Amino acid sequence: MVWSTTPGRLSHLAADTRAQRSTLAGMSDSRLLRIGTRNSPMALAQAERVRAMLADRHPDVTVEVRSMSTSGDRWLGDLAVLGGKGAFTKEVDAALLNGDVDLAVHCVKDVPGDRPAPAGTVLAAYLARDDVRDCLVHPGGLRIEQLPAGARVGTSAVRRVAQLALHWPDLVPVPIRGNANSRLAKLDAGEAYDALLLAVSGLQRIGQADRITHPIDVDSMIPAVGSGTLVLQCRDDDTRTRDLAASLNDPRTWRETMAERTMLHILQGNCHSPIAALARTEPDGRLGLRARVISLDGKTVLDVHEWAADPITLGTSVAAALLRQGARELLDLPTHGSA
């Protein structure tokens, strides 16, 4: 599928300049930009969003979207077996490094936080953040507090499982894998689920926002690191693509995500870590970061809320406070599922 886009005024996120890559990028037309993405309905919708934004800002650049299957999409078991969340990005990363695509679109939640981006690539821009909340999807329109004791709630996210145990211990989390569309289909088919927990932003992106029966407030269900955020990744030395990506960057989202991911990196959190965090920009410009590490049974809760001007300083301080409370011991306990 091919569309057209255009160059306006370009700017770097990084201050340094790099020589433009041409041979490895393999672009016969300097106005061609190839986006790589997973081939799930949500990922394709996200690529279309990026295409539309580029079309608005850079109408003379031609954008070609190349979708691919990832091991995370194909595997329906425990993600930890595949090495965690990187299972959703490694094929796209390989295509980027091989020069088959120029720009990758990822959900920040799918990008591993316990290690840096693959060598030779850079996370070049963060799009303006969408709704960060989790939500309940129930066929009868019930809110989560209206579910009867013993109701089976589909989720494999240990972060959600732990917070369910904390606030709604009478509900029963039941593992579920697959993309949002397939999960909705399983709910509709009556496959062992009475309700689902999903991301509001994900349902909005696939045009299924009408399935949301209860958006859950962020004080009860603190979101995952990077919730509601899309990130653009490109080769580190491809200055042309870095310029195009930078034109879509949202500075507020960049600061909030940097604080959250700094904390996650220091804690070495991964897909089976019960870590929740949300950074928000205050009216005075400071960042606030609330983070929670919680046992799967909901009985041990470590909670920190701090403010600072610098996102890296904030993320570092919050991680240190959690570690002082015993986060390392809690995170080293065995868990299953994803965050």
TrEMBL record:
Q: Describe the family membership recorded for this protein in Swiss-Prot or TrEMBL.
A: Belongs to the HMBS family.
Q: Does the keyword Transferase apply?
A: yes
A GO molecular-function term, please?
Answer: hydroxymethylbilane synthase activity
Miscellaneous comment in the UniProt entry for this protein: The porphobilinogen subunits are added to the dipyrromethane group.
Where is each Porphobilinogen deaminase N-terminal domain found? 33-242
**Reaction it catalyzes:** 4 porphobilinogen + H2O = hydroxymethylbilane + 4 NH4(+)
Q: What is this protein called?
A: Porphobilinogen deaminase
